[in-house]
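Subject: Glutathione S-transferase structure
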Amino acid sequence: MELYFCPMTCSLATRIALYELDEPATFHMVNVVTKKMADGGDYFQINPKGQVPALRTREGVLLTEGPAVLQYVADLKPERGLAPKAGTLERYQLQQWLNYISTEVHKQIFYTIFSPQWPAEAKVFVREQVAPAKYDFLSKHLDGREFLLDTGFTVADAYLVTTLNWCGAAGIDLGRWPVMKAYLDRMKARPAVGRAITEERALREKMA
């Protein structure tokens, strides 16, 4: 398999999932701003969307969109429990969380804050109104829980911890939500999560 990624972006969640499963893959670094790969190649020739993650599967098919990629990886070793069994209620709950993180957290909060196309007023509104509403909801759900799903650590947790890791750069003080801060610290203590973040942070610094 081959993972096309940009350090410390949403593709980090897929790296975490691969490490959780001890699943080998070749990693290709992409600059999502210039759409150039580390070897100078045009990323649009690989993925016409120009976004990450993109995964060249075992079957040789290019799979895109984070929630789909994460579920594919999880299903490589279903016995490890990164995704509940297909057809179960728990699997639909996983998809519920993946969709929520993708749309309500990743895109609504962080895409707005980090995109140069959005006006300053929109970014302020997101920091002061949107993000608190989302984190209040997540805090209430995670209060007394170790993971998003009662089945244990899943790819939804890999995705959520990836987004929470952006809070500092986005000007969001996660300390306002002790439950979320404790959750992030707990997730970072997992060997696969810590390894993925450490490696990608070093790569990100080299890109700067």
